[in-house]
Amino acid sequence: MENSGFPVIGSRQAAKAPHESAIPLAGSREEPLVDIADSYLPLDEDQTAAPIADPTAVEPGRSLALADFAPPALGAGDRLVRLAYRMGLPASAIHPFRKRAKTRLTATVTPPLPGDPAAGKALRAGHFLVHGFKSPIADTAFSGPRLPPPFERMVHGFRWLRDLESGGTRAQCTQVAERILATWLKANPKPNPTPAWDVGNVGHRLLNWMIHAPLVLSGQDRGFRSRMLHTIEDTARWLDRHVAKADDRLGEVAGWCAIVATGLLMADGKPRRLYGEAGLVRALGELVSDDGGVLSRSPLCQIEAIELLVSLRACYDAIRSEPLPQIGTMLNLLVPPLLALLHGDGGLGNWQGAGAIEADRIEELVRATGVRTRPLRDARQWGYQRATAGKAVLQFDAGPPPVARHARDGCASTLAFEFSHGPDRLIVNCGGAAFAGGLIPLRLEQGLRATAAHSTLTIDDFNSTAVLINGRLGSGVSEVEVDRRTLSADGNGPGATRIEASHNGYVGRYGLTHRRILILRDDGSELRGEDLLVPAGRKGKRGTIGVALRFHLGPHIELATSADGKGVTLALPDGSLWQFRSGRDAVSVEESLWADGQGRPLATRQLVVTAKVPRSGESFSWLLKKMR
């Protein structure tokens, strides 16, 4: 890749490289986007672009306080107990003179997170409700690998218990919970190599049994209650031995959280708790990048990690014990990157397979953490850039995709962006790959993860990173260069935030680097962009290639095209008007879809700029401007 003097974030370095200072670095250069844009703008004679000059004002980087994720300090006796338990010695060997306690729960947890009342009522009516799709409980295959991934996580992780608890009174819900639980136990009498015994699912299942124990242990059948208590103990022992075999780090964290929770709440659980706390701290230290983003780069995984820690902290509260300090430290790291992906409506952006999860759910989650902080604007390691101006919010994927071992529903979205103004989303990504199997058909899952499902540039309809099955990603983007600056203006005009990034995903096939420059004016009324294809490597540069720039639109936007075909007027639901202008090629309007927070696919449209360009490189300039 051409050396432009920018810091390079590689796919492996993105997880562990130390945080780099804000730039520009000495010797970096400014691209002439402002001059180019001014040459084909303004959009009408009365409108002139504000002068943007003097890019010497540099946005400060965010300092990180590195947390200590060493195992908790213990006395000699507790260290010996932990060592003995890790070696597999039974409780009778650790405390040979103590009478073994009866298998029982010693405390009841107050659930820290509310469920979905609609899903709870559906459960009482005999249906699982997953991402807007109702599936009869009686027709659910509780064993074998036949469930869509969202249903697997819901059914085998018993995540539906939270919804059920929110869907009625304790008396109304207990019988439903016991009936589903009995069916599941009958279908899964012992561990087997199916998704039911995936470490992540087992961790969630055991943790949910602990938190919602009154739903599964309050029935009148004493025999069932005794069987359930022994199932909890057997599951915890299985997890003790297999937690390190999780598919990814987040699944391992779920397993460790369940082990610690069981040690906290079950009688004679101290050895397990000590063992689990040491493992949890190690796993947490490897869960996130230096700026607090999980290694999968998925906001859904970010939410899951926060939910796990909030739930575990509630187990400490149940026994009036001080939680591990690393739990609070990790929550303080996890929340700011999640906030960075929120739009003006308070909902989540559509990144790495996520849908636009509503503001209410995000607010409840953040409130449960007790963390008060601001969004992280410049997450170099997690890979997302955020810029705000007036009512405008810009989100930019300026990082390589997650490596295969961390990816969940991984998407080839490098250099895609989303843009909102107030409560309205103008430019979005399709999203929803993680919800496929609900209202979004499974057959669309691969397509929703493709580069073309994101607001960025594609060459010959190839993905910038190969999209494989089971949410994994193949070869493609391995390095992303990022340069972020604050531009000050001459005179009384507004300044701007300028973000430039490039990736090498098309170098191997075409010998071209994709570089994107975005400039957001400080009043939020204008977003200028330039996409460049820059020669790199030794590939031949003869012939032509097909290029498409896609700008997926938010829902409920009315469109009108200009007479010259290079402009499109966007009428937003609030009555405001925006105009999109292409600098050199015509703009076409095509069908698209957008996944909302309930996993529902909403029909929408996309603006597409297509061209045949030489393999020697080309540039495309465009503008999105508020007219009224």
TrEMBL record:
One of its GO terms (cellular component) is cell envelope. Residues 372-622 form the Heparinase II/III-like C-terminal domain. It comes from the Bacteria. Residues 1-20 are annotated as: Disordered. Its main location: other. Signal peptide: none annotated. InterPro entries: Chondroitin_lyas, Hepar_II_III_C. GO terms for molecular function: lyase activity. Transmembrane segments: none annotated. It is found in: Cell envelope. This is Heparinase II/III-like protein. It comes from Novosphingobium aromaticivorans (strain ATCC 700278 / DSM 12444 / CCUG 56034 / CIP 105152 / NBRC 16084 / F199).
